[in-house]
Amino acid sequence: MAKFCKNCGAELNENQKVCLKCGAMVDDEVKPAEVDSGSVGWGFLGFFIPIVGIILYFVWKSSKPRSAKQAGRGALVSICISIFSSILYAILTATVLVGSAGGF
Ligand SMILES: [Zn+2]
Burial level of 80, CB count in 10 A (0-12/13-18/19+)? Predict the structure, then answer.
């Protein structure tokens, strides 16, 4: 299987690392890259199970940046919503307590 320089199109030997014609670095064989779909599904997973989303984010950060970003974002949104709702709940509870205490 012949390889060709991506820069100038010159034919290259199998083990050649640098193009002799233009000096460009020759890419190694295209590895069957891990699927980094960046699927929204990872966002949903991170949203419903934030701890998994965070773990996936750190595990995939370098190998699958797009999927990692989705999972991390889902987890982040989920955490923000739970913090927000607990603050809201605390405010409502406090308001009710203060209201009932003041009312009687
Ligand atoms: Zn070349």
Answer: exposed
